[in-house]
Amino acid sequence: MANGMLGAMGRGDNSVIRVKAVTAGDLTIHYVAMPFISPAWTVQGDNLYVAFYPQVVVAAAQRSAAGRPGLGDNRDFAVLRKALGGQLAIAIQFANLPEAAPDGYSLLLVVERLALGIADMFGIDAPAMVVPTLPQLQSVLSPAASVAWTDESGWHMSGLSPFPGSALVAANTSGMLMGQTLMTTGVMLPAIATGLPALGAARRNAKKMQSSTYARTLAQAALVHASHHKDVLPPDIVTLVEDQVIDPEILISPFSDAQVPEGFGQLSRDQKAQWIEQNSSYVFEAAGRRAEVNSQDVLFYGKPGDHEKGIPVAYSDTHTEWLDEDEATSLIERLERGQ
Question: What's the rounded Cα separation, in Å, for the pair 298 and 288?
Fold first, then answer.
């Protein structure tokens, strides 16, 4: 049947697209013989393995057969999956962006240089660098995931990521990266062609986005801790630092001039706690409480003095919001009253 359908698609020319089969050990891999990608699948036990290349299918099946940990055993995925809800998913996507960044960073630079280089060739004074350095990028990255499901009202999709477009750093073969690369290039070129207006506002917005990412990363780290401590959130921020769940650098807002002191790792726990109390740009509102996935339950918020024209707020479902100054004042007053 599959060969008949594919053959019908190729009528009118001499090309033929067929479904073929190959054996790898005790596996039979079926794949579509075509250029660039070769969608493949196999069944092993109760599991169906599908990928864009036969090699990936074989590797996934062999990994499962060997009893090695799978996606369901990844604690970061477990936290994100819980935050995304309990619906019965028909598709799940997960990317450990901090680990993938070194491989995908070079492609991100190619995209940047393509856009900025064209701008320079047409006489526009484009900046030398738009994409931050790899260490700066890694400091704001966290795992990302998305799920898709269907119900009586149709098809739905929900996802969580550190910031829009962050999946560009994930080196993968799913086709998503290429699609996002083309889309990002298509967005960047018209923006550059207009002369890169309002760079100052863009920088402020970038800092707001980065600070919101810091707040979300702190919230995700607290939930990871809770998943290993009977759903109880850590008692303080220093616990996350001591457990190496977060780097202390993300405690400093990009609007702030403060810096983590040299030799911070050699300080005692009490000394670290004191420094965090005095210098952290974020307040841990939910310290020591029971973790609950609630879009109204505040986990972290930014200190107004370390931000401009508002603050980021991270909630227990790991979504973040940027509140303006009046909204921030109202929220902080309500939290201080215990409401």
Answer: 13
Tokens of 22: 């190959």
Instruction: Give me 312's structure tokens.
Output: 């980021």
Consecutive 10-residue runs of the chain (339 residues): their mean pLDDT?
49 68 89 86 85 87 78 74 70 80 80 80 79 83 82 79 77 42 42 47 80 91 90 93 89 91 91 93 92 86 92 91 92 84
Smallest CA-to-CA distance from 321 within 311, 332, 333 is with 311
Does the predicted model carry a pTM greater than 0.70?
A: no
The structural domains of the chain, with segments of one domain joined by +, span: 2-68, 73-197, 199-339
Query: Buried b / exposed e across 262-282, counting CB within 10 Å, b at 16+?
Result: eebeeeeeeebbebbeebbbb
246 class by beta-carbon count within 10 Å (0-12 exposed, 13-18 middle, 19+ buried): buried
- Measured distance CA(314)–CA(333) in Å, rounded: 17
